[in-house]
Design goal:
three-stranded mixed beta sheet; Protocatechuate 4,5-dioxygenase, Chain B; single chain; 45% helix
């Protein structure tokens, strides 16, 4: 009996000892679930890199291999806004670099795309903006705080003009692509992520006016200066060419590639260089959409909504904060996956998410905007 009792107590004691770690594990899981609601996770860890050593190596390579770009863009005035690609770094790294090395502000408003895969998952909302509710976004150096501007906009915008959807932001990669580059040049950067959905030009004008009014108020209340304290970024890749995109209007050979990239370059230079007027934005919108925005145009630019909406908003902010001055643009560099090829970074942490060939290529460019 005594032996049996001892065995029972021993077994019970083991049970007690097992309960304690199980409780700890449960509590850790519980609190990790809470933190998951506060921290936006990484969507693409193949095309983008998320360890500081990887980002440092990438930027060191881009700096050492792009001396001509530094000289070409050395005369740029202080920048207040830009258009950036969001393609894989091994494809588009050289196109990101000349823009992001000139961004030194405390916070950045990012106008992102709502890609087709995301639209299908969230029932394709239109005519609104999409905010998230995360407190932080992951960055390669540390977590990135969301600016107080987002809460200010949620409070003041007409509630019919936006939705809050963490799932949409979790699935969308067009905003996160810009974060490692931003944080490399400013470790304490804050962001305001805004996804732009499909809407016609009239709706864009109305909603961008409202958004710009509230951003302007936030800028005044916080004594911010464009280009010094706050910056605006629009995320977009250009032409998506090939049968995979149902887009072979020029064919599938070298001539087709030359015609397709040439079309991209002409559009970017014609409508995103020089003084940016409302009429120029409207004409650009027509070029990107084709006959009507519901057809998503004959040029498969994923920024066909983020670019015109972002430019309308930025232009209106400039009008409110700097009367008499104009928003002026310069296309820094254009390239594409077929022409650019893959950067020769072979160590772990660098990858591509799609092939490149004459039958499947994507164009991209970076543009800088300043006051004049």
């Amino acid at each position: 009996m005594i032996k049996m009792k001892a065995n029972f107590i021993g077994q019970f004691g083991v049970g007690i000892r097992n309960i304690v770690p199980l409780t700890i594990i449960f509590m850790m899981l519980f609190f990790s679930c809470l933190s998951a609601e506060e921290l936006r996770p990484i969507r693409d860890n193949v095309g983008f890199c998320w360890k500081k050593e990887q980002v440092n190596r990438l930027l060191d390579y881009l700096k050492s291999s792009s001396p001509g770009q530094d000289e070409t863009n050395s005369d740029l005035p202080a920048l207040i806004a830009g258009i950036s690609p969001h393609d894989d770094y091994l494809y588009a790294g050289r196109v990101y670099y000349p823009l992001f090395k000139n961004i030194k502000t405390k916070e950045v408003v990012i106008f992102g795309v709502t890609h087709g895969t995301v639209r299908k998952t969230i029932d394709d909302p239109r005519n609104i903006l999409i905010f998230d509710d995360y407190k932080y976004w992951r960055g390669p150096y540390k977590n990135i705080e969301v600016s107080g501007l987002r809460a200010f906009l949620k409070k003041n915008l007409d509630r019919k003009h936006y939705m809050v959807n963490n799932k949409a932001h979790r699935l969308e990669h067009s905003i996160e692509a810009l974060i490692p580059f931003l944080q490399h040049f400013n470790r304490d950067i804050k962001i305001t992520p805004i996804m732009v959905t499909a809407m016609n030009f009239s709706r864009m004008v109305h909603l961008s006016n409202e958004l710009a009014t509230h951003i302007g108020t936030y800028i005044r209340q916080n004594n911010l200066k464009l280009g010094e304290d706050i910056f605006f970024l629009v995320s977009s890749d250009a032409n998506h060419y090939g049968k995979d995109f149902d887009n072979i209007v020029f064919g599938e050979d070298e001539r087709a590639h030359k015609l397709g990239t040439g079309s991209d370059k002409r559009i970017a230079v014609a409508f995103l260089s020089g003084q940016i007027s409302k009429a120029k934005i409207a004409e650009l919108t027509g070029k990107l959409w084709g006959k009507t925005y519901t057809e998503y145009g004959d040029r498969v630019w994923c920024g066909k909504f983020s670019i015109p909406f972002g430019m309308l908003t930025i232009r209106k902010v400039v009008q409110k904060s700097h009367p008499g001055m104009s928003l002026t643009g310069k296309v820094l560099i254009y390239s594409d996956t077929y022409s650019e090829g893959v950067l020769p970074l072979k160590k772990p942490g660098y990858g591509i998410t799609a092939p490149f060939s004459l039958k499947h290529w994507v164009g991209f460019f970076s543009t800088a905007f300043y006051l004049e």
